[in-house]
Design goal:
This protein is mainly β and 118 residues long. Helix content is 0%, strand content 55%. It is globular, with a radius of gyration of 14 Å.
């Protein structure tokens, strides 16, 4: 599975951005897709995820501000980020997880930088 992330950039605090992650195969075949982020010197953490059944989950810090969604026809997952804060600054990575018969495979996009200025 190949993932192509896009949509990052520089925005002022309170602004919005939408990230996109296009998958190379039918996203319904992927057990989960999600967005992670990694700030300098910190670990990579889950921001939001969506299952093949459409269930979503969010990090506490972004709940109510970020929304993950998908377009099955385009094999694309989105992350709408509103009310951005400087602490949201990080490299955002798209992830897809696919459970095989005897293993679980994780796939990652190339990362897109989000910078929120105060």
């Amino acid at each position: 599975v190949q993932l192509q992330a896009s949509g990052g950039g520089l925005v002022q605090a309170g602004g919005s951005l939408r990230l996109s992650c296009a998958a190379s195969e039918n996203i319904f075949s992927l057990n989960t897709m999600g967005w992670y982020r990694q700030a300098p010197g910190k670990q990579r953490d889950l921001v939001a995820g969506i299952t093949s059944g459409g269930s979503t989950n969010y990090a506490v810090s972004v709940k109510g501000r970020f929304t993950i969604s998908r377009d099955m026809a385009k094999n694309t997952v989105y992350l709408q980020m509103n009310s951005l804060k400087p602490e949201d600054t990080a490299v955002y990575y798209c992830n897809a997880r696919k459970r095989m018969m005897y293993s679980v495979n994780d796939y990652w996009g190339q990362g897109t930088q989000v910078t929120v200025s105060s």
